[in-house]
Structures
1.
Amino acid sequence: MPEYPAVASYDVVLALITAAEMLGVKYHVGLTASTADFYVGQGRPGFRDYQPPWSRDLVNTLSSMNVLNFEMEAATIYTIANVHGGARAGGGIMAVIANRKTNEFAPDAGVEDAIKVANEAVRILYEWDAIKANMGGLRYLTMNVIRDWLKR
């Protein structure tokens, strides 16, 4: 079975960045590792301390490749959205509740901010869609489109 690249949509990521900046919420943009496993797939021992060799240094290995976090849904959402979503696919915002390197865990940390940013990003995307429609039904909102729109 062929692999499919799980990639977030450009405009959704840009709207999330814009929303975080507007709301003053600290953010990072980067790579995430999607895994179906809460333990071994995130570099931690599983049931009865089972941990295969490839998992033992997984956090450091992925960190050296600029992977910022683990999560369990984004790859599926991005893939489905890209296959079925057309120009606007999917994006993701993750609250950091665990530091796998230091083994620190803070339930609900950043969750409220993530919700606020996601909601604001939806509003921004709605506004951008109106601008693109007024500019002739463009697919992406680029700096050139913004400059032309501001001149109107």
Note: The chain has a mean pLDDT of 90.
2.
Amino acid sequence: MAEPRELILRWLSRREYSRHALAQKLSVALPALSAAERQAALDDAAERGEQSDRRFAEALVRSRFAKGYGRQRILAELRQHQIEPSAVDTVLRDAESSETERCVEALTKWLRRQTRPTPEKAYRFLQGKGFNFSEAQHAVEQIFR
């Protein structure tokens, strides 16, 4: 039977995980492990610098920005991972990217695949990507002039 520390290190060697996600994975992989033992293993990984919710949040934000997602969608995903709101604000503030520019870029990329684009479809697409209405409106007006 694998030790909690070994499993955590194996998972983290592949990619970053939030503390919440690691706790879920541990409870599935080692169901006999008590909640206290699970928390102790997670505390140990955090103290050693092996697991960091901030590092996870930074990686997720970079990844989602690259995929053309907006701030609202990213915030929702970070909340699902139970990342502290103060850390979320810091990570998003530190990310050097204009929400409006990303919105226009996402819409431009989307338009390349469309045969009959309309402003209404563009608004729906941008909302689904997590951009707020004012940014979507600005992007749609800029492209559909």
Note: The mean pLDDT is 93.
